[in-house]
Structure formats: structure tokens, C-alpha cells
Design a protein that fits this description.
By secondary structure, the chain is an alpha+beta fold. The protein has 5 helices and 6 strands; from the N terminus they run ααααββββαββ. It folds into 2 domains: 98 residues, Helix Hairpins, CATH 1.10.287; 69 residues, no CATH class. α1 packs antiparallel against α2.
């Protein structure tokens, strides 16, 4: 039994410098990730309100990307086989991508909506059979207030439906109607529809 502890002590003492170097690399990347995330968040003050959510998401993604890169670099510096780890993470990413296909479609569509802004909060819209005023736009849903109810429309569905955006309409109207003047209506449709 003492041989086991002696061997363990010898191996740890031989690997200690590598473990410390790996920890230093990981810690440096962690600080860099916090700096990058904070730097991107400071950009929020320079963008309009409609893009603040997108900048916040970019800050999170940038921070996590730098942190994960640093973690893998730190493990490699510490002497671990990172090739197997990266391959395993790739398989996990593929499995999660397949399992979360619809959610990821909504997130990608949400990023597109936040970036291109075919409509904004407060606009009167008709998306498919649902009409009302846009209350909220986030990564998964667009929330429409219509006749006292909130309708959550998945972002991926917005890319497959015809969207009618009614500009300069009085806020007292509850839903778009056929009497809207053509100059107030802007149709946004998926190509080919």
C-alpha cells in the first residue's frame, strides 16, 4: 500500500509544474474572457435599444468562446490529451444540435430578426393569422399583444409566414384591417412566396 502512495507522490511531483502551468493558462484565458465579455457589453451603450439584446448575446458568446478555448489550452498545457476531449465535445455538440433542432432554428431566426429588424417593438403587425402590436422580441419568440392576450410566435415560424408591418398606425387600433392605406403597409415575405 505504501508503494502506491509513493508512486502517486512521485507522479504528482513530476507533473506538478505542468499542472501549475495549465492552471495559469486557464486562469489567464478566464480573465481574458471576462475582459472580452465586458468590452463587448460596453458596446451596448453605443447601439440603439433594438440591438442591445443582440450585443448582450454576443458578449456572452464571446466570453464563453474565449473561456472554453482557454480551458482546452490549459488542459493541453497540463499534459492531458485534448484531441480526444475536442472530438468528444464535437460529438456532444452534434447530438445536442440534433436534439435541439427546433430551438436552435428559433434562436438563429431570432438573431436574424434582431439584426435586420423587419419590425420593432410597438409596430402593428400581422404574422399569419395573428395580428397585434409587437410587445417583445427575443431570441425564441416575438410576443404580440392582441385584444388583451399575449401571442407568442416562434421566430422560425416568422421566417415561413407572410409578415405585414403597418407603419404609422394609431395605437388605439387592435388589429390591422383591410381599410389600411397602402402607404402604411409593408409586406415582408419569405422569398418564393
Amino acid at each position: 500500500m505504501t508503494d502506491f502512495f509513493e508512486i502517486l507522490q512521485l507522479r504528482l511531483s513530476a507533473a506538478f509544474p505542468q499542472l501549475v502551468a495549465g492552471a495559469v493558462v486557464a486562469a489567464a484565458f478566464w480573465m481574458l474572457a471576462r475582459f472580452v465579455g465586458g468590452w463587448v457589453m460596453r458596446m451596448q451603450g453605443r447601439v440603439d435599444d433594438d440591438h442591445k439584446e443582440l450585443v448582450g448575446l454576443l458578449a456572452d458568446v464571446a466570453g464563453w468562446a474565449v473561456f472554453i478555448t482557454g480551458l482546452v489550452a490549459g488542459l493541453g498545457t497540463a499534459g492531458f490529451n485534448v484531441a480526444a476531449l475536442v472530438a468528444g465535445l464535437g460529438l456532444v455538440a452534434v447530438a445536442l444540435g440534433l436534439a435541439m433542432k427546433d430551438t436552435l432554428a428559433n434562436v438563429v431566426a431570432g438573431l436574424t430578426i434582431l439584426a435586420y429588424r423587419p419590425f420593432a417593438r410597438g409596430d402593428k403587425v400581422q404574422i399569419g393569422a395573428h395580428a397585434g402590436r409587437v410587445a417583445k422580441i427575443d431570441l425564441r419568440y416575438v410576443t404580440i399583444e392582441a385584444k388583451g392576450a399575449n401571442v407568442l410566435i416562434p421566430n422560425a415560424k416568422i421566417h415561413t409566414e407572410t409578415v405585414i408591418v403597418m407603419k404609422d398606425m394609431p395605437k388605439s387600433e387592435d388589429a390591422p384591417d383591410a381599410k389600411a392605406e397602402p402607404k402604411h403597409v409593408q409586406a415582408v415575405a419569405k422569398p418564393g412566396k
